[in-house]
Design goal:
- This protein has 218 residues and is mostly helical.
- The protein has eight helices and no strands.
- It has one domain (2-215).
- The protein has helices at residues 2-19, 21-41, 48-76, 80-86, 89-118, 126-153, 158-185, 191-215.
- Helix 3 packs antiparallel against helix 5 (89-118) and helix 5 (89-118) crosses helix 6 (126-153).
- The radius of gyration is 18 Å and the shape is globular.
Length: 218
């Protein structure tokens, strides 16, 4: 099992580093959107709630295409059947989850300083902001991975993935907005981060139970 997980993780990262499709598209979208929001604001300092909401809207839509690509690529290139035969379903899910977590963390690491700089965000609690971003990104990746498998098996694309993901991601997204707003305004607490981590753990546990039925043709 461990060898299957590691081999799938290495394969996914090797393909991504060779093509740089998911990360490049996501980072380009994030940079352009952040710059557009900054120009639209015209140097006006926005409220902490607005700043937090805009940040997570940019991060969510930037990450969606990259998070779906990890499964749609297997179906489009005809390697999904080989993967089903050679690797256990749990190993496939673990590898794809690890890849998606790495992708969204890379996107968040690039977006965060750009957003803080261009939107002139005054972070009162930087450590709380970093914790909220990490926990929220983990919740999005945990939600998106199993949904990406469903969309790929149904022959869907990125637009369908974003539509079906939004209702599932909305609760942790709203909590992440609240935790980010608190870190900007200086009233940070750990409740939002704890909820996001608990949400991620519960969703990953449920995904492990369901993934075999989603991934393997009966």
């Amino acid at each position: 099992m461990l060898n299957a997980i590691l081999s799938n993780i290495v394969k996914d990262f090797r393909i991504e580093f060779r093509r740089r499709f998911a990360v490049n598209i996501a980072l380009s979208f994030a940079a352009i959107t952040t710059l557009a929001v900054s120009l639209t604001a015209g140097g006006v300092r926005l409220g902490s709630q607005t700043q937090a909401m805009l940040f997570w809207i940019i991060l969510f839509f930037s990450a969606m295409n990259g998070l779906a690509h990890v499964f749609t690529r297997e179906e489009e290139e005809g390697t999904a059947l080989f993967l089903r035969v050679t690797s256990p379903a749990a190993a496939v899910y673990t590898a794809k989850l690890a890849f998606n977590i790495a992708v969204i963390f890379i996107i968040a690491a690039v977006i965060s300083p750009l957003y803080v700089f261009f939107l002139n965000v005054d972070l009162v609690a930087p450590s709380a902001f970093a914790a909220a971003v990490c926990a929220g990104s983990l919740a999005i990746a945990s939600s998106a991975t199993v949904l990406a498998a469903i969309v790929a098996r149904a022959g869907g694309r990125g637009s369908l993935f974003t539509i079906i993901s939004f209702p599932v991601v909305l609760p942790p997204l709203w909590v992440a907005v609240g935790a980010t707003r608190a870190s900007i305004s200086g009233s940070a607490s750990t409740e939002g981060v704890i909820f996001l981590l608990a949400f991620s753990g519960a969703l990953v546990a449920v995904s492990y139970m369901l993934f075999g039925h989603i991934w393997i043709e009966e």
